[in-house]
Amino acid sequence: MQYRNVGKSGLKVSEVALGSWMTDLKGTAQEDVARQTVKLAFDNGVNFFDCADAYSGGAAERFLGETLKQYPRREVVISSKVYFGTGPGANDRGLSRKHIFESIDRTLKNMQTDYIDLYYCHRFDKNCDLTETLRAMSDLVAQGKVLYYGVSEEWGGARLEEAQRIIDRYNLYPITVVQPQYNMVDRYIEHEIMDVCAKHGIGITVFSPLAQGLLTGKYRKGQPLPAGSRATWQSDHQINDLLTDENLDKVERLLKVADELGTNLAILAMAWILQHPQISCVIAGASKPSQLENNVKASGFHIPADAMAEIETILDFHRFERHVG
């Protein structure tokens, strides 16, 4: 396993991290599999474990805290997030100072730790003044409950720039990291977010590197959905929306590239993300140990320049640019 700094901070995370938003905690057998997966991750050099208070209604935090306490705290990087509802009260959601302060205490209790390494704003709160949110997050760093903070989805380049102006004005602790979705078929962060992060030294820890499973190669054009796959049960149908003829045609061509390089599509897809120096790590879920064993092989996997060029031809991505005159 190789490690990278999160932006300009001194914090190092494994190139492949383990996410827990899809962790199945419905029974003893499932918990045992999840526990085995965490152990295998740690044994393979994964030091970054991503979570959120909203995952499984807090059960994911409690599971991760109980599982990780067997390892020296200094050897793991733990993250969580705040925004979504944690109760029926009017102040039980969002990014107000009240909700942030109450949520971090609950998260610390769930995780059985004195501090969280990375704490993210899970969404952008349009109903709360941004200065209030940033002051609260900065104060958590000052208190030692959080070491670094960042933001997750729905924070575009303009919001990050606005946040930076507020941070500079009030001399707050800075945003260290952003966690957007990013993969071969969803490259929106290349339009502006990557440049903004590079400008301010903000790290990027991406989730959904395999596009909900599309980039594993198990979904093939003209073939039935694999039994038990996410596309057969996921309630929000995110993966089903990705199973277009255009995307499946790209998958077929990418599978050939992976085969030529002696690897599989999942490894190729994550290694492709890691070819970008702005990326700190990829956060990949794993419902069973075998998936984790495959995922970690993406760290350090080099894609030759000619293969990278072929991949770009297949993906046919065009960064937004507007020219006048």
UniProtKB/TrEMBL annotation:
GO CC list: cytosol
Pfam families linked to this entry: Aldo_ket_red
Sections of the chain in a coiled coil: none
InterPro entries registered for this protein in UniProt: K_chnl_volt-dep_bsu_KCNAB-rel, NAD(P)_OxRdtase_dom_sf, NADP_OxRdtase_dom
Positions of the NADP-dependent oxidoreductase domain: 16-315
Key words, A-Z: NADP, Oxidoreductase
GO terms of molecular function: oxidoreductase activity
Gene3D superfamilies reported in the protein's UniProt record: NADP-dependent oxidoreductase domain
Statement: the UniProt record of this protein carries the keyword NADP: yes
Record SUPFAM superfamilies: NAD(P)-linked oxidoreductase
Family named by the database record: Belongs to the shaker potassium channel beta subunit family.
Protein name per the record: Aldo/keto reductase
Top-level taxonomy: Bacteria, Bacillati, Actinomycetota, Actinomycetes, Bifidobacteriales
